[in-house]
């Protein structure tokens, strides 16, 4: 039973990780807590599901759904994320945090309604990609390969890819430099405006990728974005905002905690993620993985 | 090479630079002396493009650069070592030094050549090159910041209070490094700010004093000035 809960938690945690790591990356670099992140998740899900259904309608093979997920995630990140950053966020970076929160919250509300207008309010269901990958039996229980293998693998690839990108590539190092000291980074020739835009697009694309992957596992209804923003904020805060590896551990913790609750104390199912967050922040207010700043002299 | 004319700038409505005139020729060493809060850092930040300029011009090789974006100014060959070092703590020393050249897509062999050059002037950094920048002492950090400025500062280097907070032994060592730089790269201009004029007395060919954002040239060099006299108290 513990193993079953762990397997459930793995799939669930992986999905939250994809969304939370984007939120955390954006906060770490831009210093903005992006409430609209939940919308990128939701729009990613809707666009992917629509693309999968459209492809099926044209009689295209089911496996095409997987590249479509990736393409729609990048598309949502570039078009929606890029527009939000370039037109709105750019104007409020050095303003008060309350204003930044209000702006991203307003974007979230606008995008919520835009989703209803564009995709309708009827539930959208596109589970063909999940069924196509088949199932696997673990101790007499059938799991979908999609949830047990694909989603955790994608999460792992994102974690490793993001780490490598930030440490080994010169643009990745530029992002890290801007995060640590924007002005010093600019004095070294780094275009901080471009770093902000591309970081935001990467973060938004990750949320949209989480949405795209989830579109196969549940039916899409209005409001899925708000649930996800709260949950991914819990993960990012538990880890310490801006910590990438931390977000992976916290997502797994919260995923495992929640699925354990489903098995052992279902009435606490919804409560568990926040309970974990509260306990962690009570003991370590800066988050699990934030190291306090090193001395200056 | 660097011509500043009538430059005024403000921070949140408060004027911090008032009609500053200053010029630096090729390979010149110029000191800018003033107390804390006099506007030394503001002037260097204005040259780098981080200040809200309200009047005047900055010319570089005869070309006005006020509308050149801050991140493009290092590409002109301007290196900048800010007062508090501001190294990137999660990188090693060498990664810090290489960063600006990598960002500007300087070819690998050229980066290696410049690095070798820098380690010649600042040999102690060669031994520390793989150390994390976060673990450096104050003096080592200043050296690393100078090295990083040298990586792109092929024409001029702006040093903001490089001796600030250094123990006398380290300050001497730093000054020796600057002299070595002077000898090996006579074509690079240096603009050095300092609150303590005695440190630059034997060093700068020309000196300016800054007080409340106003800059005046000190004629006859630092040794002859009342500022230097005041320093002896």
CATH superfamily of the domain at 2-86 and 154-231 in chain B: P-loop containing nucleotide triphosphate hydrolases
Strands ordered across the widest β-sheet of chain A: 1-2
Report the CATH topology name of the domain at 2-86 and 154-231 in chain B. Answer: Rossmann fold
The Rg value of chain A, from CA coordinates, equals 19 Å
Biggest sheet of chain A, open or closed, and with what strands and sense? 2 strands, antiparallel
Q: What is the domain tally of chain A?
A: 1
Secondary structure: number of strands of chain B = 10
- The total count of helices of chain A amounts to 12
As a percent range, the share of strand residues of chain B is: 25-35%
Name the chain pair with the biggest interface and residue counts per chain.
Answer: A-B, 20 and 28 residues
Q: How far apart are the first and last residues' alpha carbons of chain A, in Å?
A: 53 Å
Output the structural class of chain A: mainly alpha
General description of the model:
The complex is a heterodimer of chains A (297) and B (233). Chain A is mainly α and 297 residues long. Chain A has a single domain (2-283), classed as Orthogonal Bundle (ABC transporter involved in vitamin B12 uptake, BtuC), CATH 1.10.3470. Chain A contains 12 helices and 2 strands, in the order H-H-H-H-H-E-E-H-H-H-H-H-H-H. Chain A has helices at residues 2-30, 37-57, 65-87, 97-119, 128-132, 145-168, 170-180, 182-187, 192-214, 224-239, 244-264, 272-283, and strands at residues 135-138, 141-144. Chain A has a two-stranded antiparallel ribbon with strand order 1-2. In chain A, helix 1 packs antiparallel against helix 11 (244-264), helix 7 packs across helix 9 and helix 10 runs parallel beside helix 12. Chain A is globular. Chain B is of the alpha/beta class and 233 residues long. Chain B has a domain at 2-86 and 154-231: Rossmann fold. Chain B has a 6-stranded mixed beta sheet with strand order 6-7-8-3-9-10, with helices on both faces. Chain B has a 4-stranded antiparallel beta sheet with strand order 2-1-4-5, covered by helices on one side. Chain B is globular, with a radius of gyration of 17 Å. The model of chain B is unreliable at 225-233 (pLDDT under 50). Chains A and B meet through helix 7 and helix 8 of A and helix 2 and helix 5 of B.
